[in-house]
Design goal:
439 residues, alpha+beta, 5-stranded mixed beta sheet, 22 strands, binds adenosine-5'-triphosphate, binds magnesium ion
Length: 439
């Protein structure tokens, strides 16, 4: 991509109402534009990052055996009346009437829709287990949309739904998702902490939130003992084995968000020298809820004994759009965003310091073409602007590498490369520079 033809509307200063650093940087980097409270347009740079996160989530879901579907954003209210949640859900649900006066809603989650699909087709335990997932926009009419896409009203969520014959099988499905989540966050360069959580309005009796630590986070984490940051489970995990001991061991923390738990009661249960609190951002939430939806909605399968019984279900959410902001909270400096390579909108910026000078243009062009061929997704900064302004905007938008081409270097047969995360610079012949960037 040539920056002179791209659409990257960076701002020198963030609007005064952006309170947290990720919101400020997303606005300054030209990633999003607010269209209404909690509702955002995704501009090209923001969309690229969003899609990369989405793809990592998709790959890990696929690897864990889940199957992708795409559910509608609008749902029939009658389905929610069947499950009993229509009236309970409250003001967060955006309720809509169509021209025939039928009640619809913009889905805040999709347990009812997926249960309706499941019960239409799956009738036998032989077809289980199944896990269907969906990466789709959700709407929750949050009381206080704030912090940009961190707490939007319209937001992108990955939601997966597991269906099993009994509780033991369902717990295996749950553990599988738990491990897939650890892989997702590790690939995103995040240290996510799984914490036991209150199932809240989704219901059920087993639930974990995945929290990344950040002072600006809205969740309060109450840790019992040492805070353990979780890595990826690694390739040697036996997906089908009994993962319960591993999950229990990895999730030996307790957490609460302010609304959900009674902090005083919690602290009473934990010795004073083991207590600590931290703030964090909830980037995922998983639930095992058993027959909560299958019973009222009659999602039954015939078991080995020939009898029909409700399936045991779980649901598994990842806040895909919130993760864009969460990654920025976890990875930035005074100059701007520092994208982990896995989600960077461009892999490298080729900064031409003297566009219009034939020899400089030729080297910049050659570097750009080579990086493109190597799959490094280069952005060619061919703008007619001061070097300082170019560096500032490339640092701001967080591109992991800069390859800087200027008249002096070209005369000496070298270019300069800079790693965004460390600020480390090297001056090298082009071929050598390309090798370093290619890793
Ligand atoms: P929160 O406590 O932050 O409101 P939640 O418990 O209501 O989250 P879930 O219903 O579990 O959220 O949704 C799954 C994931 O979707 C959450 O872990 C979070 O990452 C994301 N999410 C939820 N609400 C929002 C929102 N308003 N804006 C952006 N992402 C959200
Ligand atoms: Mg919520």
């Amino acid at each position: 991509m040539r920056l002179s033809r791209y659409f990257m509307p960076t701002l020198r200063e963030a609007p005064a109402d952006a309170q947290i650093v990720s919101h400020q940087l997303m606005l300054r980097a030209g990633m999003i534009r607010q269209e209404a409270a909690g509702i955002y347009a995704w501009l090209p740079l923001g969309l690229k990052v969003l899609k990369k996160i989405e793809q990592i989530v998709r790959e890990e879901m696929d690897r864990a055996g889940a199957i992708e579907v795409l559910l509608p954003t609008l749902q029939l209210a009658d389905l929610w009346r069947e499950s009993g949640r229509y009236d309970d859900y409250g003001d967060e649900m955006l309720r809509i009437k169509d021209r025939h006066d039928r009640d619809l809603l913009y889905g805040p989650t999709a347990e009812e829709v997926i249960t309706e699909i499941f019960r239409a087709y799956v009738k036998s335990y032989k077809d289980l287990p199944k896990n269907l997932y969906n990466i789709q926009w959700k709407f929750r009419d949050e009381r206080r949309p704030r912090f940009g896409v961190m707490r939007g009203r319209e937001f992108l969520m990955k939601d997966a739904y597991s269906f099993d014959i009994d509780e033991a099988a369902a717990r295996k499905s749950y553990n599988r998702m738990f491990l897939a989540y650890l892989n997702i966050y590790a690939r995103l360069g995040l240290k996510a902490i799984p914490v036991k959580a209150d199932p809240g309005p989704i219901g059920g009796d087993l639930s974990h939130e995945f929290i990344i630590l950040a002072d600006t986070g809205e969740s309060e984490v109450f840790a019992h003992g040492d805070l353990v940051e979780m890595g990826a489970p690694g390739p040697d995990i036996d997906w089908d084995g009994d993962l319960e001991p591993l999950v229990t061991q990895r999730a030996s923390l307790y957490a609460a968000s302010d609304e959900m738990h009674d902090a005083a009661r919690f602290e009473a249960e934990v010795p004073a020298d083991k207590r600590m609190t931290a703030r964090g951002i909830e980037v995922g939430h998983i639930f095992y809820f058993g027959e909560k939806y299958s019973k009222p909605m009659k999602a039954l399968v015939t078991g080995p004994d020939g009898k029909d019984a409700p399936i045991h279900g779980g649901s598994y959410g990842v806040g895909v759009s919130r993760l864009v902001a969460g990654i920025i909270e976890a990875s930035h400096d005074e100059a701007g965003i520092i994208w982990p390579d896995a989600v960077a909108p461009f892999g490298v910026a080729v900064v031409n310091l003297r566009p219009g000078t034939a020899e400089v243009d030729a080297v910049a062009e050659q570097a750009y073409k080579a990086l493109e061929a190597a799959g490094k997704e280069p952005l060619l900064d061919d703008r007619d602007d001061r070097p300082g302004a170019k560096f500032a905007s490339i640092d701001l938008v967080g591109i992991p590498w800069q390859l800087i081409v200027g008249p002096k270097g070209v005369a000496d047969g070298v270019v300069e490369i800079k790693r965004r995360a460390t600020g480390e610079r090297q001056t090298l012949p082009l071929e050598a520079a390309l090798k370093v960037i290619a890793g």
